[in-house]
Amino acid sequence: MKLDTWPNLVVMLFDQAAKYGDAPFLWEKRDGAYRSISWREAAEQVSALARALKAYGLAKGDRVVLLSENAPHWAIADFAIMAAGGVSVPAYTTNTARDHSHILQDCGATAAIVSTNALAGPLIEAAKDAKTLKRIICIEATDFAPPAHVTLSSWADALKEGSAAAGDPAADARAIDAGALACLIYTSGTGGVPKGVMLSHRAMMCNCVGAHDLLLELGLGSEVFLSFLPLSHSYEHSCGLMFPVAIGAQIYYAEGVETLTTNLAEARPTIMTAVPRLYEVMRQRILAGVKRQKGLKAKLFWRAVELGRKRYEAPETMSLGERLMDWLVDRLVRNKVRARFGGRLKALVSGGAPLNYDVGIFFTALGLRLLQGYGQTEAAPVVSCNPPSRIKLRTVGPALTDVEVKIADDGEILVRGPLLMDGYWNHKDLSEETLRDGWLHTGDIGVIDQDGYIQITDRKKDIIVNSGGDNISPQRVEGILTLEPEIEQAMVIGDQRPHLVGLLVPSEEFIRDWARDNSASGDLAAIRDDKAFRAAVGEAVDRANGGLSQIEKIKRYVIATEAFSVDNGMMTPTMKVRRHEILKHYQSELEGLY
Q1: Does this chain's domain 10-21+36-176 share its CATH topology with 473-592?
Q2: How far apart are CA 543 and CA 92, in angstroms?
Q3: DSSP readout, 239-292?
Q4: What is the full DSSP assignment across 114-163?
Q5: Are 58 and 82 in contact (CB under 8 A)?
Q6: Going by C-beta distance under 8 Å and a sequence separation of 6 or more, which residues neighbour residue 157?
Q7: Which sign does the torsion angle of CA 58, 61, 63, 64 carry?
């Protein structure tokens, strides 16, 4: 596959649909069983919805917000928006009305597509202030009333009207330029306000080409993907939708994390892309099962892990006896583990956040090929990945096809190639700061070894990337916490962790009033562990959490012994929090919250 195999993503879909016809394409659980939509059916629905969007007034370049859980209609809507000449704007299902309001107004969306009544509520609330929004298409019926300037249409009616309308979206798609804007993916910025990353058809096609070349040695054929990450995440959008289309693969949509084991057995994927958090959960579940077994089975399991690790880290030191035992546990233990993943998995791919080495070596030792990659939404998003034939778990692999990577004088990783974003929507200065002389300044610090493999060593930017791969602005979360009168200062952490935790400094007035009302000391260090005091602070945290999305909520917290100040070195003279200094004092307590 080459970058010019197709002129754009829409032509790619229609060409693949013509090639595969009635073969199964998108699989969804309905009435207790997975049922498929064929390539032909999907293409017909894409065409119908594209014609409907045009009939509703969608003009070339108009933005359409797409809000839905992972399902066939997500993929159909995404391609239909592009086929109609529009720009797809994926939105997280966890977004609050405030998040939707910002996105709708920032991108000037003229239309939106939403799946369920529950998701429609916050979106319709946000629509009241979005004056450019003219229409919302609801896949399921909603009982929320839209503002006067917005028309509601049903998905079924849109498909019916589009089927009867004139036009040939498949033919029209040939005129879409590879450099045209395909989607706007909103990601958190250092200022706390989500910004739209402008990705072209060419940028995402570059990712498809790179992934194809990377996995070619696995013998790509009739591939099956299990889509688990939200499609609003750039990683899943490119690697879990666009890339499967590019290679003519089938896509099964997982129901949720609680049914993942069942879905793996049903879909039997050959390739699976996910974030480290998923592998952490899987590892915990496997270990919980081993703990229940005990006896010989447990001993054989741990022997498989031990020998598998040794085979990866120091194969030359393995004795003949160890090699024979490794062969035996491969059949007795590893085959069962592989069967839990469906039995035909060629590769697990990890991206979106750094993978803990112990998690990576665990799955490697159990006979599963785990490839760690690296990227950013600004790079569509994949920059590099470990090749299947030579995996270095402590690295994120070499750059993909058509991608250049170099290290700046200050150690920052710079990226260049067709995969780069066009910039941030409505942020000219920030775009110019991030894209300089054709190079993306990633904000990550790293080194490149003699084999061209990249190792991430630090982060220049202050964004938290949790183990689910979500970008979270700590300033935004801290700002909302300190809006509560009881909380004077706050610092949150959560990099490579499943959720956020916080360090809180209550306000002097609150401390004084609480101490008076409870006949207690007014010394923060003396009362911070008092249950009643913590409960009072907890009420403020609960209120703040009410205004935060699920990934931004503070799950646990500790109360500081004193306020952050210039005198104690925890704040700069310009009153900015010095995170590294604070962590020197509180790191063990914060880590203890996990």
Answers
A1: no
A2: 22
A3: IIIIHHHHTT-EEEEP--GGGHHHHHHHH--SEEEE-HHHHHHHHHHHHHHHHH
A4: E-SHHHHHHHHHHHTT-TT--EEEESS---PPPPTT-EEEEHHHHHHHHH
A5: no
A6: none
A7: positive
Q: Which stretches of 338-438 are assigned E, i.e. beta strand?
A: 347-350, 370-375, 382-385, 404-407, 412-416, 423-424, 435-436
Separation of CA 286 from chain center? 24
Instruction: Give the pLDDT confidence of 89-133 residue by residue, as tens digits.
Output: 999 888 889 989 999 999 999 999 999 999 999 999 999 999 999
- For residue 318, the one-letter residue type is M
Quote the tokens at residue 275.
Answer: 């974030």
Mean pLDDT of 374-382: 96
Q: Say what the pLDDT of residue 374 is.
A: 96
Is the pLDDT reported for residue 385 higher than 60? Answer: yes
Strand 382-385: give its sheet, edge to edge.
Answer: 33-38, 24-30, 250-253, 224-227, 271-274, 347-350, 370-375, 382-385
Q: Show the CA angle centred on residue 282, arms to residues 280 and 283, nearest 5°.
A: 65
Identify the H or E element spanning 209.
helix 201-215
Which residue in this structure is represented by tokens 């054709």? 438
| Fold adopted by 473-592 | GMP Synthetase; Chain A, domain 3 (3.30.300)
> Residue 467 belongs to what H/E stretch?
none
Residue 25 to residues 37, 296, 572: CA-CA distances in angstroms?
Answer: 6, 43, 56
Give the DSSP letter string of 324-358: HHHHHHIIIIIHHHHHHTTS---EEEE-SSPPPHH
Is residue 539 within 8 A of residue 557, CB to CB? The reply is no
Residues forming beta bridges with residue 65, ordered by sequence position:
89, 112
Q: Give the per-residue pLDDT at 192.
A: 55
Q: So what's the pLDDT on residue 190?
A: 38
Q: Rounded CA gap, 454 and 370, in Å? A: 16
Chain Cα centroid distance, residue 454:
21
Is 1.10.10.10 the CATH classification of the domain at 10-21+36-176?
no
More confident position, 179 or 572: 179
pTM of the model: 0.84
Residue labelled with tokens 């498989």: 304
Convert the pLDDT of each residue in 412-446 to its tens digit: 999 999 999 999 999 999 999 999 999 999 998 89
The reported pLDDT for the residue numbered 293 is: 87
Q: Is the pLDDT of residue 197 over 50?
A: yes
What SS3 state is found at 390? coil
Structure tokens belonging to residue 79:
């391609």
Largest pairwise CA distance in the chain: 78
d(CA 444, CA 456): 7
Domain residue spans in the chain?
Answer: 10-21+36-176, 473-592
The first and second tokens of residue 411, run together, are: 């150690």
Tokens of 397: 């692999």
Closest listed residue to residue 87, CA positions, set 185, 189, 228? 185
H/E stretch holding 397? none
Sheet holding 111-114, edge to edge: 151-154, 135-138, 111-114, 63-67, 87-91, 181-187, 195-200, 423-424
Which helix (H) or strand (E) segment is 72 a member of?
helix 72-83
Packed helices 474-481 and 531-545: angle between N→C axes, nearest 10 degrees: 120
